[in-house]
Design goal:
InterPro entries: HGSNAT_cat. By secondary structure, the chain is mainly alpha-helical. It is built from 16 helices and 6 strands. It has 2 domains: 142 residues, no CATH class; 250 residues, no CATH class.
Length: 396
């Protein structure tokens, strides 16, 4: 892990090779994660901040795909440097992946380190695998440009994305699950869930990935579904490549609309589902992330924009140290569930205590619960602010 100094945050990509829109997009994704996992009362969270129970999607379901899309953007912006020494790049990729996986396991173990029930998959683990697959593919298929040197082979990536999405669709539809059959997309009957139960075993899956009977049967960051999730990263790579090559954003906007329309068009045939990351979900969520990027790029990347820069400041703080922000938020979430606060009514968790304080000041219980999440978000931003002021970014 290193700490890299950067030009002050107001500078544009031309001076620093950092796109303001990328930092803000990552910051929005991290902020979304924090707001989703930090309500004062889980039963009083606004509907857009709850994940779809199974099929369908909500705003909360767009958060993690947007972070993966941002990973792809970062790969594209640093690809020339990465491709200059592929052997060194391979070592760097492996090191980053291992650190992310290790950090993800530590966060999963918090707060009690109950190793017999340690969840093995997770958000950072999926980021590590998707990053490794996407970067390795980009390096293996790169092409030489006489003027720019080694560049991303867009055609090869498009072919790879098509193969993955069509292949995953075919696997879900036609590969039978032992004892169940093929084509079942319920929580316990789909192939990705069956593989995860066999590879990781049930005690090491997400404890809330249950079926109607309450049995743990799936993990939303499972093994096989990492393949279509990598498509979100590759769409980010292509978007970042396009941003470097052209100032026009119209083509990117058209691509975003087409991706979302493709996902919606496939929904009746292969339902949009984040839990097993169906091909339709990968397409729709990639289009959503790309559309948000286009808006941010128009506002932030193409010259000074005082008002947007001011409004985007908290997200730039989060996006500049996204992994550190995520680690802080997950640590706070874990501690928030430990009943160590002593009150007249007995021991309380910080989450319940904070919700009680918010409820005493805010009559609407949903707004009070949301205020707790905003409090956690503000705490993370304030913690990272000194690093941001000094232009310091923690890198794995």
């Amino acid at each position: 892990m290193t700490i890299a100094a950067a030009t002050p945050s107001g500078a544009h990509a031309s001076a620093t090779n950092r796109l303001p829109s990328l930092d803000v997009l990552r910051g929005l994704a991290v902020a979304g994660m924090i707001l989703v996992v930090s309500p004062g009362d889980w039963n009083k969270a606004y509907a857009p901040l709850k994940h779809a129970p199974w099929d369908g999607w909500t705003l909360a379901d767009m958060v993690f795909p947007t972070f993966l899309f941002s990973v792809g953007l970062a790969i594209a912006l640093s690809f020339g440097k990465l491709a200059r020494d592929k052997r060194a790049a391979g070592a760097k990729i492996a090191r980053r992946a291992l650190i992310l996986i290790a950090l993800g396991l530590v966060l999963n173990a918090l707060p009690y380190f109950d190793l017999p029930h340690l969840r093995l998959p997770g958000i950072l683990q999926r980021i590590a695998l998707c990053y490794t697959l996407a970067t390795t593919l980009c390096l293996a298929t790169d092409r030489m440009d006489p003027d720019a040197g080694s560049t991303v082979n867009r055609r090869a990536l498009l072919v790879a994305m098509a193969v993955v999405l069509l292949g995953y669709w075919a696997v879900l539809a036609w590969v039978p699950v032992p004892g169940i059959g093929a084509g079942h997309l319920d929580p316990g009957g789909n192939l990705p869930s069956w593989i995860d139960r066999g590879v990781f075993t049930v005690p090491h899956l997400w404890p809330y990935g249950t079926d109607a009977a309450g049995a743990v049967v799936y993990d939303p960051e499972g093994l096989l579904s990492t393949l279509p999730a990598t498509v979100n990263v590759l769409v980010g790579v292509l978007a970042g490549t396009a941003l470097k090559a052209s100032k026009s954003r119209l083509n990117l906007l058209v691509a975003a609309v087409l991706l979302m329309m493709a996902g919606l068009a496939l929904d009746p045939v292969l339902v949009i589902n984040k839990r097993i990351w169906t091909s339709s979900f990968a397409l729709f969520s990639s289009g959503f992330s790309l559309a948000v990027l286009v808006v941010l790029s128009v506002l932030l990347d193409q010259g000074p924009a005082a008002l947007p820069q001011t409004l985007s400041f908290p997200f730039r703080v989060l996006g500049g140290n996204a992994i550190l922000a995520f680690t802080l938020s997950q640590s706070l979430s874990a501690v928030g569930g430990v009943p160590f606060i002593v009150t007249a009514q007995g021991r309380m968790t910080p989450q319940a205590w904070g919700d009680g304080l918010a409820g005493a000041a805010i009559a609407d219980p949903y707004l009070a619960s949301f205020a707790c999440a905003l409090g956690i978000l503000s705490l993370v931003v304030l913690t990272l602010l000194p690093l941001h002021r000094r232009g310091l970014h923690v890198r794995l």
